[in-house]
User: Which sequence fits this backbone?
C-alpha cells in the first residue's frame, strides 16, 4: 500500500498527487512512468512521473479525471492509500547539455512529464524555454513552476484567455520565424498536437522528441498493446519509450490505434454495478 502525502486540485479536470513510494523515488528519472492501481479490483493505469523527491521518498503524478479508475483515484484524500504503485517503467529521457537552447512544447497534462525533463536540462546548464497550451487559462498547467528555471514561458490558449490566442504551434512557428535558434524541441501532449509540432520543426531540421501514450496494459512489453511504428520498425512504448524521435513516428497509425476501442470504452460497465 502506498500513502497519499499530498493532493491538489489543479483545475476541474486535473489533480496532482504526491505518493510515498520509496523504491520508485530512489530509482526514477525524467521521462519514465508508473502504473497505479487504486484498489485490489482496480485496473492498471499508466501515468508519467511529474516530479520526485529522493529525500522525502515521494513521487508526484498529475492525472486527468476521465474514467472510472481516475474518478476513483480522485476521491482519495491525503493520508489515504492506493493499492499498487509500480515503477519506474520505460526508458529515461536522453538529456544532455546543449550549446544553445531547448524549447519544450506542452499540451494539457503533457506539461507534467515535460517539467522534469526541462528542469534536468536546466540543471545541466542548458538554456530552456517552454510553450504551454490549454483550452483556456485554467487548463494551463505548471506555468509558475516552469518559470523557476525557464528563460521564457510562452502560453497559448484556444480562447485567448491567457497568452496567445491559438495553438502551441502558432507560438512555435512565430519563434522560429523570428530567428530563434534551438538545438532540440521536446513536445509532449495529445497525438495531434505532437504531429503538428513535427510539421513545424521537421522542415527546419529541428530535432524533435515526443512522448507516446498508446493503449497499455502490463507496462513490460508482454501484451503488445502499446506497439507503435518508429522509422518503419515496430517498437513498444512501455519498454522502448515512451520518448521517440518525432520525425520517425507514424502518428496516423498511433491515432488510429488509440481510437480502436472507443465504442467498447463507452459500453464498459466497470464500477457501475
Assistant:
Amino acid at each position: 500500500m502506498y500513502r497519499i502525502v499530498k493532493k491538489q486540485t489543479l483545475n476541474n479536470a486535473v489533480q496532482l498527487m504526491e505518493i510515498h513510494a520509496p523504491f520508485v523515488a530512489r530509482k526514477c528519472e525524467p521521462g519514465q512512468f508508473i502504473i497505479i492501481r487504486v484498489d485490489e479490483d482496480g485496473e492498471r493505469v499508466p501515468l508519467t512521473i511529474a516530479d520526485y523527491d529522493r529525500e522525502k521518498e515521494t513521487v508526484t503524478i498529475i492525472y486527468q479525471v476521465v474514467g472510472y479508475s481516475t474518478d476513483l483515484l480522485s476521491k482519495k484524500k491525503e493520508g489515504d492509500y492506493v493499492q499498487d504503485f509500480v515503477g519506474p517503467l520505460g526508458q529515461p529521457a536522453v538529456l544532455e547539455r546543449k550549446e544553445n537552447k531547448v524549447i519544450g512544447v506542452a499540451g494539457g497534462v503533457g506539461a507534467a512529464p515535460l517539467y522534469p525533463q526541462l528542469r534536468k536540462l536546466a540543471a545541466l546548464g542548458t538554456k530552456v524555454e517552454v510553450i504551454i497550451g490549454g483550452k483556456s487559462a485554467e487548463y494551463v498547467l505548471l506555468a509558475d513552476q516552469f518559470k523557476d528555471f525557464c528563460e521564457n514561458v510562452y502560453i497559448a490558449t484556444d480562447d485567448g484567455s491567457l497568452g496567445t490566442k491559438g495553438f502551441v504551434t502558432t507560438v512555435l512557428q512565430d519563434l522560429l520565424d523570428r530567428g530563434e535558434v534551438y538545438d532540440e524541441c521536446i513536445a509532449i501532449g495529445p497525438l495531434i498536437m505532437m504531429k503538428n509540432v513535427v510539421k513545424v520543426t521537421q522542415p527546419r531540421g529541428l530535432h524533435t522528441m515526443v512522448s507516446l501514450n498508446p493503449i497499455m496494459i502490463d507496462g513490460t512489453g508482454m501484451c503488445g498493446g502499446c506497439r507503435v511504428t518508429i522509422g518503419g520498425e515496430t517498437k513498444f512504448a512501455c519498454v522502448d519509450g515512451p520518448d521517440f524521435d518525432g520525425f520517425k513516428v507514424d502518428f496516423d497509425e498511433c491515432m488510429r490505434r488509440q481510437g480502436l476501442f472507443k465504442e467498447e470504452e463507452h459500453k464498459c460497465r466497470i464500477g457501475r454495478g
Notes: The CA atoms of residues 98 and 126 lie 5 Å apart.
